[in-house]
Amino acid sequence: MSAIFDFLVNLWRFARNTLVGLLGRAPGFVWIEVGGTLPEFETPVGFVRKRLTRGPSPLTLQSLRERLARISADGRPRGVVLRLRDVEAGWASLEEAREELLEFRSGGGRVVAYLSDPVDTRSYYLATAADEILAAPLVTVGVTGVRTRVSFFKDALERLGIGAEVVAVSPYKSAGETFTRNDFSAEAREQAQRLLDGRYEELVRAVAGARGLTPAEAREKIDRAPYGAEEAVAARLVDGVCYEDELAARLAGNGDRVRLAEWGAARKSLKAPYRRRSRRRVGMVQVSGTIMRGRSRKVPIPLPFLGGERAGSESVVAALRGAEGNGRVAAVILHVESPGGDALASDLIWREVQRISARKPVVVLMGNVAASGGYYVSAPAAHVVSRRTTVTGSIGVITIRPYADRLYEKLGVNPVGLERGGGPGSWTQAGVPRRTSWRCSKARSGASTTSSRPGCRAAGTCPTSKASSAAGSGAAPRRSSAASSTMSAVSGGRFGRPASSAASRRGRRTSWRESQSRVRAGPRPRIPPTFSGRSWRRCGGRSSSSPAGCGRWGRTGSPMTDSILRSETCGREI
Prior knowledge:
Protein name: Signal peptide peptidase SppA
Distance between the termini: 62 Å
GO molecular function: serine-type peptidase activity
Radius of gyration: 29 Å
CATH superfamily of the largest domain: 2-enoyl-CoA Hydratase, Chain A, domain 1
CATH architecture of the largest domain: Alpha-Beta Complex
Largest sheet: 6 strands, parallel
């Protein structure tokens, strides 16, 4: 039935294309407005939301490819004119759009970039893909370089009475530093500078190659920006200055005046492509946004503190299983546009990708960012494809626990907790971090523990050799629920239930104020001898601050965690 439908559609398009070729008049150049975030694909929306948000669909990389391919296949238009407005796309998306324009030029099409709005670095980077760059007389060309900015909230949160405790495996896992520091750590500054260096070199390469400059000359031009339109012409960054109504005459040169048409009108006079249906298809599954448990969602209007797009593990797993069960799907493309997120949700997606890869080829296409959990879910694929400016890799695992005891005091709130067990209140937001519950385990595994409360906890501290020997002498392990939760987040595994002490069996009422003024007594805890069902080799009773006494983890069954733990020994990179 589908073959008959395709035949009828192609028959109609053949008749239409014949009439358009004989009677229609194609424009000389087609306007294409480029702006926004340039996502890879258009996100499917429901009927109601589509009616509420009427208007033209945002330009995507896929729609840009289709437009350029249709113009090139028609053969009558000379080329396209880019109108660059409010370009907010990531560097990898800009790189992909730039390569599509260069490919269009290699096929004989002409690309002209017309700068009618103030131009920033991203817009000019995309404009360097054009044969010719023209600007309106009063346009400012601000190709001033690249910049990153990070806001640190430690002092602001302390004024409110809010603190944060951060546990990170790998010193480069710096996401929690915005809550516990007032400036970059050495590792965070190093990696931020490396990312900036990569983007800056890509910008210099593009400007130098497109404008016929040496890299040194391109850097000099960037350092002297911004420019007015005439100054940009003198600096060889722009080819000419004209108003939009003069553009057609300039593009025509000495020939007849050419006609420019917007894409919406031009598509009616262009030949339509024929439908070609294959018996086998390639499925597309997107992991877009922060990885969380549950269903995927996308907020129509991004608002502060409400969160952005979310890649739900349930939705992604269901889509992968649907592609697996569809007999017509020969392979799966997993498009990853995610900075990471929940460790458990990432592990569930990782498992599904690993399982499906044994039956069908899975190819990962990375977008602007595929880091942490985004890289984790990509690891089992048969092939992983990224762009030069994609931010990717896995640098560790992190857990953040906020606490608001001083805020509660200011508001006159007095939480009273009743406890049973070794430490059920370790993760409550009312209390301050517990000093002795899981510091040792984090130091031995290479994790560092920091708190925004001065003097509350030393980063990455480890007990003395005497305490370590006592822990390794066969004493019963004693740990808090916070330690178990963090280790489970790292490994995806589970520890056994803790042995209950006499005090925890009896239980007693403890007021919140009393619990904050008391420090737990007893021996320092040690790491349980099992980790995600696999073996773990302890420090052997020696001080874990000594390289000879550092502990090493066994395999956890998770490739991301294994790679992290293999490269970490008591907080030092090997």
